Predict the 3D structure of the following.
Amino acid sequence: MAPRQTMLIKAEDGEMIECEVVSTVERESSFQKSAPIIHPRLAGLFGFLNLIPGFGTFLAAHTLLCGQKCSYSSPVKGYFVGLLTAFLQLLTSVVIIGWFWSLWHGMYMVRKCNEAQDARRWNKSLK
């Protein structure tokens, strides 16, 4: 069993109270929000295809039109932001930045999908 994570918070009366950290949420950029929540193996394939700057991101954006979800409330908005992300990755690959961005975005897609799969498994175990 993992050790408990706690933090101290100052109460209104000035006394320090120890609280347990139940979960944390990472703040996503607009580009990160467009990453679809798909099967981790498929996300790995798209991440690998991002060796060609923006190609995996471009294909992953199309999964949003096929019913997959993203962090945006509207998959259509996620689709267009995903296409913009892919285009900018390709455009900035001329100065190497886009290539690194594309690889990082591919790794982010895999991590996001793995976290979503872990959350689904955990929710199922509670039922």
The longest helix spans residues 97-126. Strands lie at 6-10, 16-20. The mean pLDDT is 90.
